[in-house]
User: Fold DNA-3-methyladenine glycosylase 2 family protein from Yinghuangia soli.
Amino acid sequence: MEQTRTWRPPYELDLRLTLGQLQRGNSDPTYRTAPDGSVWRSARTPDGPCALRITASRATGEVTGQAWGPGAAWQLDRLPALLGADDDPDAFPSHHHPLLHDAFRQRRGMRMPRTDLVLAALIPSILEQKVTTIEARKAFKLLVHWHGEPAPGPVPDGLRVIPDAATWARIPTWDWHRAGVDHKRSRTIMEAVRVAPALERTAAATRQEASRLLKLVPGIGVWTTAETMQRSHGDPDALSVGDLHLCKQVGYALTGTPADDPRMLELLEPYRGHRHRAALLIRMAGPRTPRRAPRFAPRDYSRI
Assistant:
């Protein structure tokens, strides 16, 4: 049965830029953008799976959420947080650099979305550890296709719900192998799903405490924690330290010279509290770092 909620954000909202931060590439089986501009997401909530369709009216500024499945009420209750109601972009000190000032002004409607679903943000982040984006997104698509379930309701073709923790734990070794996931990443996911209830409870913790607890799981470090917190907690300061390309791009955009992680931290210190927001704006609007080395080639673990 369909459930509906209409909400008028008390701020400018760009639906595409806000929710697009949750999409894991164009092949993400849990996310769709429809030709009419509406956004579809599936989620596995504490009450069960759901599908959510979100539309925004330019005429009234209202946002409408339509949801199906056992988790519909849970998801609609959190619709404002999903659309950045907990975010405070006005506190972003954009004046420190003209590039960020202009990028921020042009994207005033971009908010930090908060899902309150930790495992759903964590597992794709683990899959992205130390591999190319192409490899990680392919693995996520295959594993959700094989072990997830169709999203409830009249949803777009192919929209699926990620597996629950028990199902992730039962994925056989050969399916990880077929999806191109090496033993280190699959083992880290097993460690995470083993303590899934505790991880989900960190959605109610402070950002500092949630970050600390996530890093207690073997195989989860600073980068994976940041990539998770950006989505589960809508953390505008969760900077992806350890990213192969981010530090170079931040350095090049702000100084004209690629940087390493320590230098990136120095450059983004004036934006503390919003360092992820600053890095995201640079990724969107900054100049690309010239490549002087071969690209990191995808590896086929299914043949190893």
